[in-house]
From TrEMBL:
Belongs to the pyruvate, phosphate/water dikinase regulatory protein family. PDRP subfamily. This is Putative pyruvate, phosphate dikinase regulatory protein. It comes from Paenibacillus chitinolyticus. Pfam families: Kinase-PPPase (PF03618). It is an enzyme of class 2 (transferase). It catalyses: N(tele)-phospho-L-histidyl/O-phospho-L-threonyl-[pyruvate, phosphate dikinase] + phosphate + H(+) = N(tele)-phospho-L-histidyl/L-threonyl-[pyruvate, phosphate dikinase] + diphosphate; N(tele)-phospho-L-histidyl/L-threonyl-[pyruvate, phosphate dikinase] + ADP = N(tele)-phospho-L-histidyl/O-phospho-L-threonyl-[pyruvate, phosphate dikinase] + AMP + H(+). InterPro entries: Kinase-pyrophosphorylase (IPR005177), PPDK_reg (IPR026565). ADP binds at residues 155-162. NCBIfam families: PRK05339.1. Keywords: Kinase, Nucleotide-binding, Serine/threonine-protein kinase, Transferase.
Amino acid sequence: MVQDAHEAQQTITICSDSVGETAETVVRATIRQFNGHNVKMRRIGHIKHEDEIREIMEEVHREGGFVAYTLVQPELREMMKEEAIRLGVRAIDIMGPMMQAYIDTFDGAPSRKPGLMHELDDAYFRRVEAIEFAVKCDDGRDTTSMMKADIVLIGVSRTSKTPLSIFLAHKGYKVANFPLVPEVKLPKELFEFPGSRIVALTMNAEKLFKIRIERLKTLGLPFGSQYATMNRINEELEHAISIAKRLRCPVIDVTDKAIEETAGLIIEFLQA
């Protein structure tokens, strides 16, 4: 049976003369807006020569899709534009228009050095330290280190505590997270930590039920598990809200929210 053209997987090729993380972030955000389940990304970094661009664009021309690129070297950007026109391949310049706007408005001159965003500066080492901290303090593993955190996330299972912790760590925040289970006693450190820097995560019960059912499938566990029953989920959510009230901390409903959106709200709470 021939696969429907609308269902065939499409490719977005990301090109950079550095690592390509900036372009990938933009592409990922775009894909989420379209529920792009059949779209995959291919990232090609550290491009140095014009011949590499010719080869990449020829391949995209044969296989389909389009290109998103961050090239700070003007000759590489120009080659990308020429090849896009020659082959009829759509190519999106992520950084070029922004750099040109800066030049036109502020009369500045770019350094033309790839990878400046990822140089080993103090901010880089803060991110590394924050990521190590998030891993160490994930899921209540090290409550004694909780007092060193910038943020503490609490919530029932499957409310995105771990991915949020890692995402915020990449922003340089030290994040600890603790699961809320009615039968598990809360650590004393949680009540010693400032409530303004604790964030409770909650979710619509039906949505959480679906997520937990999928989790059981992944783990190969029977569907009759108490973990994925509406009664248990409602009990846990009510318990979590009661804990948030005791701690006097903000509550965020993460239902249908992207990690980036929730992280933005958390940062706003911290900066308020």
